[in-house]
Amino acid sequence: MTQSLDPARYAVLIVEDDALVRAEAVDLCEEAGFTAYEARNADQAIRLLERHSDIRVLFTDVEMPGTMDGLKLARGVRDRWPPVAIIMTSGRIKVEASDMPENGLFFAKPYPPKGIIKALNEIATQLHT
Hints:
The chain is of the alpha/beta class.
């Protein structure tokens, strides 16, 4: 018997310091069927990752206040939680593939909602196989 794809079994951690942008990202992730956790900075994100083993996607802004930016957070997540998929976004910084962790995705702001949902659905499919 095959299991049906249920993205709600997986969570997305949204790391964004702008409350409005963060709320919109939460809505997008929930629309795609995922559970969504939110953090304002990398330090909060690490604490949530330590507490919630269902987080399988990191969706982070590059520029944010705190002890590390989104690139450093993404590299740390890749080292400590290798199965977590990484989606990065920025309105001012163009992130090159060489700057990103392996298999990371980048979307420039304002990012296309359909593009994010498509990427999340593809990640959910990969998690399911």
